[in-house]
Every structure is written in C-alpha cells, then in structure tokens.
Amino acid sequence: MVWLDIGQGTKIAMPLHTTEAIVIGGHDLGEVDRIVVFYTEKLGKVRAVASGARRVRSKFGAALLLFTYGRLVFFERVGKGLHRVNEFAILRPFEKLRTDLEVLAHASYLVELLAASTSDEERNEELFHLLLQALGLLEKGHDSFPIARAYEIRLLRSIGYLPELQSCVICRVPLEPATPLAFSPGEGGLVCPDCQSGRKDIYLVSTTALGFLRMALKLSLDRMGRINLPGTSREELVEVLQAYIRHLLHRDLRTLDFLRAYATLWKAR
Amino acid sequence: MPHYAPSLSRLIEELQRLPGIGPKTAQRLAFYLLKVPREEASVLAYTILEMKDRIRVCSICFNIGEEDKCKICRDGTRDETLLCVVEEPNDLLAIERTREYKGYYHVLQGSLSPLEGRGPEDIRARELINRLKDGQVREVIIATNPNVEGEATAFYLGKLLKPIGVRITRIAMGLPMGGDLEYADEVTLSRALEGRREF
Ligand SMILES: [Zn+2]
Ligand SMILES: [Zn+2]
Fold it and tell me: B146 to chain A, minimum CA–CA distance in Å?
C-alpha cells in the first residue's frame, strides 16, 4: 500500500499491483502522457496513465508499444481517477507483429475484439492466455485465418456467449452431421431445416465449417493454426462469426474496416 | 453543477472541447476572459478567425501556409532530389529546426492505424506517388513517428514506392541522446544495433 499526499494533510491509499499484462491499446493524454490499455492476467482489462510516455527519453522506452507482453506494476487509484503505471518490464516485445502491416492488422483485430467484448477489471485468466498464445502464433508466421477464427469462438465461450453448435437453437432437436445446417446470429446458434423456412437472418454452414468450430473448442490454438481450410469454408466461417459478433457488440470493429479497405486497395492496383 | 449565465456556460463548453482542457481549466479561462477588456477579447476572437481564413494547405506538399504553395515549396534553392515524408506539419517544423535537411517535404496529414480504422485512403499517399512520377526525386526519406502507427505507415509506403525504383530510406531509430545504454529496453537497443553505421 502506498499513501499519496494530496495536500492539507489528506492522504489517500494507492494499492500497488503486480501482474503480467499485454498492451492492447491506448491513446494520448495531454502533452506527453499516454493512457495505456492492458489486458492483465490477474485483473482483466486495465487502463492506466503512463506519465511522460511520449517523451523521447521516457523511462518506458518502447515497452508500451501495442502487443508488448510484460510485467506490469501499477498504482491503483481508488475511487475517481486513473491508475498509474509505475513500471512495465518487457517479457516479450512481439516486435514482428508491428513490422508488417497485414500482420499488424490481424493482430490488432485480436486485441480490438478482446477490448470490445470485455469490461474493465474483470479477471479472466483464460482470455489472457488465449491472447498471449494467439499473438505468439501470429508472430511465428502462422496463417492468421484459422487462428483468428479459433480465437473468436474460444473468446465467445469464455465470456459466456458460446453459440449453440450441437442442437437447433429454436426447437432444441439434436442435429445430425449430414443435415443442411444454417446459423442464426440473432438466435445465437444453429437452426435445423424445419426451423429455417421463412427466416432471413440465417447463414448456411457446411459440415467442414461446423467441424472446424467444434474442433476449435477442443484442440489447442496451435494445432488449429495448422488446419488448411478450403476457400468456401473460410468464407462461411468469416460470415457466420462476424455476423454473430456484430450482433453481440451492436457495432463493427474498426480493424475489420481497415482490413477491407486495405484488401480492396491492394487488389485494385 | 453550478448554473452560470447562459453565454458564460456556452463559452465554458466551447473551451472544454480544446485538447488538454478539462472543465476546471475551461472555467478558469472563461472567468479570465470575462474580466479582460472587450478589445482584448475581440483581438483573440478575430485572431482565431483570421487564422482560420488565411491558413491553407499547400497544393504540393500539404504543409500549411498562407499561400497556395508553402514557403518551402516556393524556395527554389533546396535540393529537389530529396523528399522527406512526415505525418504532420509539426513534424516538418521539427526537422527544419535541425537545419540539417535541405530537400523538400511531403506531409501525409495522418498515419495508418488498423485499431483506429485509419486506412490508406486517409493519408496523402496517392499524391506522394504522383510527385515522384517526373523522376526528379532520387531519395524518399520516410520520417514518420517511431510508434506503431508511424511504423505501419512507413511499411506501407515502402511497399507502395518500391515499384517506382526510387531510393527509400527510413530515419534511424534507437537510443536517445544523453541516455544510458544499460537502461535502454531491448526493442530500442536492437533497433539501434540494426541502424548502426560505419564509423
Ligand atoms: Zn429446429
Ligand atoms: Zn509545400
């Protein structure tokens, strides 16, 4: 516990926390400071002020760059106000995620999704390790597609929004693997052929795509990263997962806009 | 929330929109302006409007100035084989302060950021390519910020300009002057090693 003197004999308590953390965002504050958003192992998403972080000779150096994994020490500000970063020691800089624009965009998507779907200071160690592992795989140069999709479905499960993938979400009939299946983002799961008629908010899902999602919940992320999916299944998975995530968040993620704009521009050349 | 006279609270509200100004500072500034003579207040108001009316973006380099072409683009004595690419006019001024650089500039008016949704269409990259078409420029120096957005932008420009065949360089990154080697983090230090030069 640290006591901060705020004048006139008043002292306020500032508990000190130490936890592993990954930088998942941030924005400038005032002239030289920065508010950094971390995903921490012990406290979930944490925002804290890094004083002087934008000075050329800041004590933080390159440590607070996006994706950096490190050991965070911060002062908790009780009540109103922001926490303060005391120290952030790099454990792994994940530098390769920042040097290629496409890799940067894919890794940015992972952190943006995590930031958008979690509240401040809700501990979730599983999500912390999921992100850490996914970033590691992207840095090693794995195909970002299966990693991102497996990451999405596991994140959804971890925050309690796993879509129904075993039986029809409407009539609850267990689904046979061979039946032509569809997914409803609004209902939050698979819909059987009987319940599909007349519905417009549904996306067709092939057995391959469904198999991928079920497998992603069981196998490790790095095994999922080696799966080679055919183009049609890739499209299905993106459509289904992104429609469901958009339905949950009530908005589009900025990174997806970026990736779309980048792809169109690059193709047009 | 105290109730101020409507015109005063409107001013406080407007001042609060300025970067770095919170409610307390806005109140203090508003009360200060309340006490200054009318002429002084009108000079301030007029100066803001005059600046807004006069400042324009240079049609060549996108720096700011008061003419169609900025002062630097009008200066015929600079080295036309060098073009330095920066994010904002402020960065241009910072490089000018060194008095080391004698070439011309290109201001991107921003940087790429996947997380903020700022894509290639949001920077003046197309205009940069157009400036390189006549073959006068021999070297493009990319001087975007040494942060994630600046690096992403540099990477993108490198890829974009490669087919043109112009020499592309990136300003050196690494240790700040006056610092201590042992306190540098590994990312900064490895950048400094990468950017080492013949001595
Ligand atoms: Zn059904
Ligand atoms: Zn100019």
Answer: 9
Which residue range is the domain that position A204 belongs to? 96-261
Residue at token pair 């996108």 = B62
Report d(CA B75, CA B68) in Å as an integer: 13
Instruction: With CA atoms as reference, report the closest residue to A152 among A104, A185, A193, A196.
Output: A185
DSSP assignment letter at A229: -
Q: Please count the other Cβ atoms lying within 10 Å of the Cβ belonging to residue B48.
A: 10
Which residues of chain A does B151 touch, with a Cβ-Cβ cutoff of 8 Å?
98-99
Residues A81 and A115 in one domain: no
What's the whole-model pTM score?
0.88
Is the domain of A219 the same as that of A135? Answer: yes
Which residues of chain B have a Cβ shorter than 8 Å from any chain A Cβ?
20, 112-121, 147-148, 151-152, 155-156, 159, 176, 178-179, 183-188, 190-191
* A100 and A87 assigned to the same domain: no
Domains and CATH numbers, chain B: 6-54 (1.10.8.420), 77-198 (3.40.1360.10)
List pLDDT tens digits, range A95-126. Answer: 999 988 999 999 999 999 999 999 999 999 99
DSSP three-state, residue B45: helix
In a domain, A191, yes or no: yes
Same domain, residue pair A200 and A103:
yes
